[in-house]
Amino acid sequence: MSKTALFPGSFDPITNGHVDLLGRACDLFEKIIVTVAVNNTKTALFTGDERVEMIQHAIQDKPWASQVVVEQFQGLLIDYARQKDTKILIRGVRQISDFEYEFRMALTNRRLAPEVDTVFLMPDEQLTFISASVVKEIAAWGGDLSSFVPEPVATALRQKFNGNASSST
After folding, report:
1. Containing H/E element for 9?
2. Half-sphere exposure for 128 (CA within 13 Å, toward CB)
3. I need a surface site. Which of 4, 42, 123, 157 has the fewest CB within 10 A?
4. Considering the entire predicted model, what is its pTM?
5. What is the 3-state secondary structure (H, E, C) of 66-115?
6. How far apart are CA 129 and CA 91, in angstroms?
């Protein structure tokens, strides 16, 4: 089995569900490359650099943090996997609708690169309802983010939406 896996996503922002999946992936692989997708056709709340920094801060105290490298990429994920010489993609699946989309993407990636496999992981069931879009909506309305994202991410969201990092979560 490959010792390195890619965990791709937009991570705009990283959530507690993502962190849970990352910890699970670290139990399975020696090294995880979190690949922050920078897509010029999508409007992200945070820049690629901001997302990389948030992820690094969100996981810095985790026992598995030394197994994780966070990088940005553009283009086809398969090309990036080949560049990094890995044959494993980690994808999170929270619900059936996620699986349908991820299944199609995995089959597309397999067509493009038969040597690359996708491993699906499920987060803790208490985290399955969390999505980055829900988190952004809660943040936009000044809601309590404490059960949705790590504190460094909550701080960054508060700064983005109201310029006040000192308000309570």
Report:
1. strand 4-9
2. 12
3. 42
4. 0.89
5. HHEEEEEECCCHHHHHHHCCCCEEEEECCCHHHHHHHHHHHHHHHHHCCC
6. 16
